[in-house]
Design brief:
The protein is built from 15 helices and seven strands. The protein has about 375 residues and is α/β, with parallel strands linked by helices. A hairpin with a 4-residue loop joins strand 2 (about 120) and strand 3. The two termini are about 35 Å apart. Bound molecules: zinc ion. Its cofactor is Zn(2+).
Length: about 375
């Protein structure tokens, strides 16, 4: 499955993205990149940071909707068995007679709904589901920024802008933004950098353009490697991954899990229905949610690497970084299919396969 995934990502990102990036280079570097620091209290005691807290989870809301569906289905089941046998037979016969029309109407509704929410994504050359407006995503991201910053100032320290590590990461990010200033999605956004004083070798981004880099990452990565990692975070925002993955999760819940939950709770007693729904939810999470997440990470790796290449970094540093990560984190386990990210080895091989495209890009950028 991974080889298929890699092959697909290499082919779709190597040509159109390189073309777009070279266009962006030619279209001009108009101004220096800008970044700002969040206005938060910085000096708080250093404590262990729970990285899971930083990830946006949508599970609880999904569970509530499923519980509603199961209770609704159980109510239908209760009402059904209260009906006289003759009436039940009549309804069952009618459903059998019109089953094709019912299925066709359902599929038409779903098709219309999805087709109205599909957008062509020029970065990937794919039609993608975006259910939420950018304004909604931004509003949610702004709230998320406030929550994450509050959580971090409680649990650890954020580095001052004068700190050497902050200045180093800011320099790397500034170079990256400057080189890719011709990309609309980069030029038209206000990017912010937060450097967290924590040994985790990690970084993440919020949809509003807040990039969080941990000092542990800055300690093990050289400037070129740091640029590739920050490029990965920029790529998540450029490719609108937050909107897309939330749209996919929402569609799976609304169009798949909720109808299945209703059917199961009509067909089965309450407790068995709840158990079956939980199993379905888990299967969908592993098969759709996690697979999608790994695929988007692979995309961000590819685009981020090319953004960094456009900033004239040493393109051999990408897979060297993932080799270092493999040494730090140890070999991948057999439960890779339960991970949100591809293994370090796969990421390294993927980045390595993109070197020829990155070198071509650097020729165009006259690096
Ligand atoms: Zn990522």
């Amino acid at each position: 499955m991974f080889s298929l995934l890699l092959a697909r990502n290499v082919s779709f990102l190597s040509i159109p993205t390189a073309a777009r990036l070279s266009m962006s280079y030619i279209s001009g570097k108009r101004s220096l990149a800008y970044y700002k620091t969040p206005n938060v209290a910085l000096k708080t005691p250093k404590q262990s940071l729970q990285l899971q807290n930083l990830v946006c989870h949508t599970g609880r809301r999904g569970f509530t909707s499923l519980l509603t569906a199961v209770i609704g289905g159980a109510a239908v089941r209760y009402s059904w068995f209260k009906l006289p046998p003759e009436t039940r037979r009549r309804y069952a016969n009618a459903a059998r007679t019109y089953r094709l029309a019912i299925v066709a109407a359902g599929l038409c509704l779903i098709g219309t709904f999805l087709s109205r929410c599909m957008e062509f994504d020029p970065w990937t050359d794919l039609w993608r589901l975006f259910l939420f407006s950018e304004r909604t995503v931004q509003a949610l991201a702004d709230k998320e920024v406030a929550a994450v910053l509050a959580s971090m100032t409680e649990k650890c320290c954020l580095l001052e802008t004068e700190h050497p590590t902050y200045r180093r990461v800011a320099g790397v990010m500034s170079r990256l933004l400057y080189a890719n200033n011709g990309v609309d999605e980069i030029r038209n956004r206000r990017w912010s950098l937060v450097v967290v004083d924590h040994p985790a070798v990690n970084a993440f981004v919020l949809a509003s353009g807040f990039i969080f880099v941990f000092s542990g990452l800055a300690a093990v990565a050289n400037d070129d490697q740091l640029s590739i990692v920050v490029g990965h975070e920029l790529a998540h925002v450029v490719l609108r991954h937050t909107n897309h993955i939330n749209s996919v999760n929402f569609a799976v819940h609304l169009l798949c899990l909720t109808p299945v939950s209703v059917v199961l709770s009509v067909a089965l007693p309450f407790l068995e229905a709840m158990l079956a729904v939980m199993v379905c939810r888990l299967v969908l999470y592993v098969c759709v949610g996690l697979t999608k997440s790994r695929s988007l990470e692979t995309e961000a790796d590819a685009l981020g690497f090319l953004l960094a290449a456009n900033a004239c970094v040493d393109v051999t540093q990408g897979y060297l970084f993932w080799e270092t990560m493999s040494e730090i984190e140890g070999p991948s386990t057999l439960t890779w299919w339960l991970e949100t990210h591809p293994t370090n080895e796969i990421r390294g091989r993927h980045i390595h396969s993109l070197i020829p495209a990155a070198v071509e890009l650097q020729k165009l950028a006259k690096c």
